[in-house]
Specification:
Fructose-1,6-Bisphosphatase, Chain A, domain 1; binds 2,5-anhydro-1,6-di-O-phosphono-D-glucitol; binds manganese (II) ion; 8 helices; 2 domains; D-Maltodextrin-Binding Protein, domain 2; alpha+beta; globular; five-stranded mixed β-sheet
Length: about 325
């Protein structure tokens, strides 16, 4: 038996809550409810090939992307796990154009949940790791029910952020501002057990850089120069010694970066100057986690967590991972 003590995510959350004297349990309940939703989604993901859950749902979402059946399922599970608990004043989902109010028949609470219910949709039918990403904000508007103002807050104001990666095992990784902690689902008992306490992004090589190089023609000169540097092509010191990895699921690419080091990049380019990834429920939560693990997250010019959101689904370029590499990327981009 491993020498680690057995800690469920529910117990860890309660211990975390004790660090926030003003917390009244609602915050912990939200995190526990997310863990429950993750177990339900994980079960469906692991059966995807056996039940009629693969393939397209037959409509397009607010992003104009073809929605997969599992996207719809994950969205529905998150919504039904969270809408009645009385802890949230509203929600934001990648799959829903406007913010999602709490039905009048249920009490509203003091928190906002923002989430990407199923990240990496293009990988669902080919059995590649996918994920769920979430972010929790405190309500700021005076009204009893939530409003857009409660949703459009900079990432620096997040109380908690996390993701679930449905891979060779299902892991839930989260932070409440006191380090980053990972829990692995033991399906035989249906519990997330602490498996990665206080994760820190390693600085030492070997390191990975992660970007979709098919878009190289559209990159800025600075972006091209940075990737050439990582490849050791420009002969300057500090270059080379990297491996390239690109899974195409943000959660999986970030999870590897968190555990093995390196940098993940989804830059803006000549066709999509703001890139593809969304600020509120992809970049911001992962930026909070990266910083808590000793890393950084930038849009190429400034910290992701400082960006003032103007829209629920606004996109942002994203450079995420080891602090020295993100800072180096900013330097190359500024020169190019
Ligand atoms: P989602 O499935 O939630 O729309 O996210 C997909 C994103 C992200 O997971 C990944 O990093 C990126 O799409 C991959 O985009 P490319 O296929 O353009 O590389
Ligand atoms: Mn996504
Ligand atoms: Mn998604």
């Amino acid at each position: 038996m491993a020498d680690t003590h057995i800690v469920t995510i529910e117990r860890h959350i309660i211990e975390e809550e004790r660090r926030h004297p003003g917390a009244r349990g609602a915050f912990s309940n939200i995190l526990s409810d997310i863990a429950l939703a993750a177990k339900v989604i994980s079960r469906q993901v692991n059966m995807a090939g056996l039940v009629d859950i693969l393939g397209r749902a037959g409509h397009r979402n607010v992003q104009g992307e073809a929605v997969q059946k599992l996207d719809v399922f994950a969205q529905d599970v998150m919504y039904r796990a969270m809408d009645h608990t009385g802890h949230l004043c509203c929600m934001v989902s990648e799959e829903v154009e406007d913010f999602i109010p709490i039905p009048d028949k249920f009490p509203a609470g003091g928190y906002v949940l923002l989430f990407d219910p199923l990240d990496g949709s293009s990988n669902i039918d080919v059995n590649v790791s996918i994920g769920t990403i979430f972010s929790i904000l405190k309500k700021v508007s005076p009204e009893e029910r939530g409003s857009l103002e409660d949703c459009l807050q900079p990432g620096r104001r997040q109380l908690a952020a996390g993701y679930v990666v449905y891979g060779s095992s299902t892991m839930l990784v989260y932070t409440t501002g006191n380090g980053v902690h990972g829990f692995t689902l033991d399906p035989s008992i249906g519990e997330f057990l602490l498996s990665h306490e206080n994760i820190r992004i390693p600085e030492a090589p070997p390191r990975f850089y992660s970007v979709n190089e098919a878009y190289e023609e559209r990159w800025s000169p600075g972006m091209r120069a940075f990737v050439d540097h990582l490849k050791g092509r420009d002969g300057s010191d500090g270059g080379g010694g990297f491996s390239s990895r690109y899974i195409g699921s943000l959660v999986a690419d970030f999870h590897r970066t968190l555990l093995r080091g390196g940098i993940f990049m989804y830059p803006g380019d000549s066709r999509n100057p703001e890139g593809k990834l969304r600020l509120l429920y992809e970049a911001s939560p992962l930026a909070f986690i990266a910083e808590q693990a000793g890393g950084r997250a930038s849009d190429g010019r400034r910290d992701i967590l400082e960006v003032e959101p103007a829209g629920l689904h606004q996109r942002t370029p994203l450079f995420l991972g080891a602090a020295e590499l993100v800072t180096m990327a900013e330097r190359f981009l500024a020169e190019g």
